[in-house]
Every structure is written in structure tokens, then in C-alpha cells.
Amino acid sequence: MQERSKKFASPIVLGGCLLAGAAAAQTPPPDGAASAATTTLPTVEVIGTSPLLGSGIDRDKVPANVRSFSDRDLRQEGAPDLTGTLERRVPGVTVNDVQANPFQPDVQFRGFDASPVLGTPQGLAVYQNGVRINEAFGDTVNWDLVPEVAIDRTNLVSNNPVFGLNALGGALALEMKNGFTFQGFEGDVRGGSFGRRAGSAQYGMQVGRFGAYVAGEALNEDGWRDFSPSELRRMYADLGAKGERLELHVAFTGASNRFGAIGPAPVELLNQRRENVYTTPQTYRNNLSFVTVTGSYQATDTLALQSNFYWRAFRQHVNNGNTSDVQACDAAVAPGTLCLDDPTTILFATTGSPVADVLGGGVPGSVDRSSTFATGLGGSVQATDKAALLGHENNFVVGASLDHGDVSFNASSELGIVGSDLFVNGTGIIIDQPAGDIAPTRLNTTNNYYGLYATDTFNVTPALAVTAGGRYNLAQIRLSDQLGTALNGTGRYSRFNPAAGATYKITPGVTAYAGYSEANRAPTPAELGCADPLRPCTLEGFLVSDPPLKQVVARTYEAGLRGGFALGEGGGAGRLSWNLGLFRTDSSDDIINVASPITGRGFFQNAGDTRRQGIEAGANFRSDNWSVYLDYSLVDATFESTLTLLSPNNPAAPGGVITVQPGDHLPSIPQHRLKGGAVYSITANWKLGADIVFASDQYFRGDEANQNPKLPGYWVVNLHSSYQVTDNFEIFGVIQNLFDQHYETFGTYTDPTQVPFLGLSDPRTVSPAAPLAVFAGIRVTF
Prior knowledge:
Blueprint: H1 33-44, E1 46-47, E2 57-58, E3 67-70, H2 71-74, H3 82-89, E4 93-96, E5 106-109, E6 112-114, E7 124-128, E8 131-132, E9 151-158, E10 170-176, E11 184-192, E12 196-207, E13 210-221, E14 230-242, E15 246-260, E16 265-266, H4 267-272, E17 282-298, E18 303-323, E19 326-328, E20 338-340, E21 363-385, E22 394-418, E23 424-430, E24 441-459, E25 464-481, E26 489-507, E27 510-521, H5 525-528, E28 537-538, E29 552-567, E30 574-588, E31 591-595, E32 601-606, E33 610-622, E34 626-639, E35 643-646, E36 657-660, E37 672-681, E38 686-695, E39 714-726, E40 729-736, E41 744-749, E42 764-768, E43 773-781
């Protein structure tokens, strides 16, 4: 990625107006720099081609559809918003609010997920300054831990094996700010709907060959649904030194966040009142300490060495109130005693004794608690050689990485009673079934991931560039049961993934590209510990002994055209850029999460072959006064194997079993997405913008056989504006969901009879999107 020297007069946000700031993604910078940036950006934009910084090449030589965003793009609506920008500006991205919390969304790209939910099969690799931040236990991505105000540049690349494990659909690489790329002070405070109060501050300085940068963010919000408060505290700091050839940085990321992730609710409850939740509490507490040391050395004019080392400590505590299949035992079997799942299977506590009927006629529930303590340690080394080869321009990159993770996972399930307010009150009795299907869990896991990669881009002619490379991955996973031996096990997965492609500049303004690549994903410790349909896990990962899972292998074909041209004499009327691409990713032994007949539980299994294919098209116009974009994507995601799956609450599944046929669509993936937006400079200081996101309907999770009506599609419009009062003072605001659309982004099924006093009969549960909201703030820069 390119190094951009940037002297910021900075922003801190103070909140409360109706204007909303920012330029649309890739809008030109303010003042007179606008037209210059517009005309030069397409020819100088450099894209990272590997996890470590320093290996960038001209975007036009990348044989894939790559999207890149600056820090200004991320704050289009006032405050930095990584996942919101991806949703608005990348045609193949959809955000599903599985947890119904705005700071922990499921981000989906071309039908592959980067999710914070343990139990969602992951398909995207996410990097921060060259370090993979998918968590060690389940490859989850906790978006709330990313210090958004400190992001300098974001690159989203499609399937590329160089980015290692989990890059099935692609990789998201975040480059953070430092004292050499950001100088000055910037702060903001903001607030608005749902009781949101937030602020951020950042400061950077360079003194000779030394640079320093520090940023902090704080947010409190009550949430628009019941029991859904959020509290975020994040910081990022970087100390750097730069000589003529050597550059070193030490950076720290810290976070301490708490939020209510209330999840889907039955449609009948939401029809009564959209703020309703099903069962509670559902709370998360995430803490992070993350240290990175990065260095680069320019050995010669053409040879550069890059390296990083990191230590990462992640702590998570989850507290979930759920319904339960506990019931009174048959009086002929065990009078006055509770049973599980049927009236003859006696419920036991950790004391080893049967559990007496303490429900008093109340509705049974459970309070499921889990904690994850993960420590990661590792590093990478890389060499980049840009020396000419046979008289032609050439860019060669070779590197190696090691990621080690130690995880301690603990879980327990406490018998509870569901109150009239749907709050599950614990009884103090911890369930411990002799069969082990519900029992306290203590598991230690160790991951060792090794990678060796190389990639080369060779200019055959000034117009034709050919890229070839690959990566060898080795994953070693060990599970150690701390309460017995049922979870003990080891897994070893290895594979070499090749890649090849080419770009050809048909005219100075039109480039064609085509490429092929492979990537693999090893099953995570969480998946390996939960793959037995006879002993399913709770959604938060109670683990049981299991059969082995196969690794997933994805093969991606991609081709397209992209280009741009200036309008008017000397480009004075602006610039139009465009892209049109086709892609297909065929995955073997895909892993899916399957629901169990036991309420609230599921298991992982390989699902044979799947296919995700489609179209991506877009156009972007920029001038001194306008920035306009329109993007469309088609993602056709289908099963390619015949499967028999459990789907116990599916209304079209006799006996709770469905048969999936080749051609059936994967659930939770809208087939069509259309996104557009515009920003107009009313005056030199006042900008007004709007954007629209449309997503078509999608199948419910659990309806893999496509037998039921779909979750309806939706469209949503946002307005934003900013006014630069002085060189150092800006006010901004945003109206989200301008027309107060009632729509849902995720759906699944549950047993509607679990809470009898609600009188529910519809098994559909959905995650509703937020209603109309207004946020505003002020930004100060020095």
C-alpha cells in the first residue's frame, strides 16, 4: 500500500445538529485539491498485494476487483464507520444484524461471512497492520474491537491465497495511522437517537525522524430495542522512528466493551411492538490488549524487507437467557423431578443428584454462560523485490508467517425460569447430564498456523502484466479437555493454494483483467468440538466429542473490465470511472451450522460442494461539486450437492428433516444488491448527500431446501450533510432510514410453543433493522 504523507488539521466531534458530514466514499478532498486528486488518483492508486505493508502495486495490475477506501471515506456520515461504509459502497457486501446490535454485525462479501457470532462459518480474513485478527477459537471477527478513528486506509480484495487461512471469499486489510501519515489534532463529539453519546479524539506529530500518534473513542447508547445498551471504549497508539532506510513502529490497540446482543425475535412479538425481545439477558463483554511491532528496511533501491511481531490477548464473557426443553418427569418414572427433552430422561445437577421440580409451574429456561480467554503470539517476515527482470518491470514478494494461539474456553448452563417480562432468572442449579450433552465445559486449545507464500507480477509489455503465486498453509490444532477426555483431539490440515492472473490495458482508460485462485480454511477449534448431531452444542459453543471435519477449499475464477476517463477540456468537467466483473467461487466440503431438535442447539457438518457466482458493476462520477456513484451486484449462492439436513422448526419439514438438492440457494444471502449515492457541494463549505441501499429477498436460515416464503427484501435511504464553519470547526449530521422503513436483515426458525403464555404459533424469528434515527455532532481540527 502506498505511503501517503498527510498533514491533518484534526476533528473531535461535539454533538447535536441535523447536518451530516463527509464526502461520499472516494469523494475529493475539500478546497482546491479536489480536481487534482480526481485526475491523478486512478493512475497512482497503490494496492497491497500481501498482508504486510510495503508490497503495493498499481491497482490496474491487480487481476481482481479491488476496493479501497481512505479514512475520509469511512466518515461519510460524520463519524468513522467501517462496516457501514462497506455496506454502502461495496456492491457485494451485505450486513446482517444477526445479533441486533449495530456494533457487532455480520459482514458478508460475495456470500462469505466475517461475523462475531460463534457458530457462523467464517469465510473472510481480516488484517490490521498485517496481523490477522480473526479470533483463535472460532475465526470470529469482533468489529467492536477495531478502533475505527485510527484507520488510515482499507483494502478489500477478493479470493487471494497470499492472505492465508479463511480468505475463501476475500480479505479485508486495514492500514492504521501513525505520526508520519497524520499530524495535528482532531476531535469530535456527537449524539442523537437511542440515547447515543459519543466522542473521539486523535493526535499525531512528527519531530525529525520520530513520529507519535494516539487516538481514543468512547460511546454509550441505550439501544432502540429493549435490553440493548452498548458501551464502547477503544484506543490506538503508535510510536515510530524513520531513517533513510529503516522504519520501526510499536503500536497498541486496547478495548473494553459491553453490549446487549439481543438477537432475532418471533415475528408475532415484533408485530405487536418492534422493540420487543424474546428472552433476556443476552449480554457480551469484550476486552482486548493488542501489541504489534512492525519494521521495514530498504536494503537497496529495489529490495525491501518487512516484518511484524504481535501479542494479542482477547477476553470475552457471554451471558444468555434462553428457553429450555426441561419439563416435569413422568410421575411413574420420577415423581417430583425434572426431565430433559422427554418425560423419562432425568435432569441432573453438578452434585450428581436428580433435579427436583423447582419450577413451581413456571416456564423453564436456562442461563447459558461462556467465557473465552485467548492469547495469540506470532509474526511475519517478507521481502519485496522490484528489480527489473529480463529488462521488464517486475514485482516479487516472498514471505512467511507463524500464528500461535492458546485458548481457554469455559461454559455452563444454569436452570432458569422465564418471567413474564421474558427475563430468565437463574435457580442456582447448574445442569450436568451424564451423557454430556448439557454439562459444564472446560477446554484448552492450541493453534499453530504456518504460512509460506510468494507472488510475482511481471510486465510482459507496458500494457500486459502477468501475476502468479501461491501459499502453503499448515494448521495444527490440539484440544485438551480439562474435565475429562471426551473433547481431547488433534487436527492437522495442510494445503498449497495457487493463483494466477493477468491484466491488459486495452486503451489508456480501459483495463481487462482475469484471474484464478484457490484458498482453504481449516475447521476451527469451536467447530471441531461441535460436530456430533447426537450431542449438539448451544449456540454459544458448549462442546462435545465429535467426528472430524474436512477443511474447506475454495476455487475462484474472476474476470472483468475497468476504466475511467476525464470529461471536458483538461478534465475540468470531472471524471467518470467504472467497472464490470464476473466471479465464481466453487467451495468443496463447505462447513455449515445445522439446527438440532434440541431447542437452542446445533452442530457443524461438511455440506459438500457450494457455489457463489455473480456480477459486480459500478460507476463513479466526480467533479469539483459532485460525487455520484451507482453499484450493482448479483450473488447467486447455491448448494451443489444433495444433502439431508435437520431443520426441526421448519414449517415445511415433515419430521424436522429437509432434503437439499443441487441448485437450492444458500440462506441469508440476498441475490440482488443495488447501491447508490451522491454528494453535492452547495457552497465551498456546505455539502449535502444521500445514499440508498437495496437488497432483495433471502431464504431463512434453516430453509436450505427453499420450501418456504423468503424474508422480504428492503430498501433504505440515508441523508447526510456537513458545514465547515471555519477552517478548524465543522458541524455534521445524518438521518438514517429517512423513510422509517420496517424491514429485517436476518431470519431463522424457533419453537413458538416454548413460552406458552405468549400464545405464539409462527416459528419465524427475525432481526429487525433500526427505525429512523438522527445523529449530529461537531468536529474540531488543529
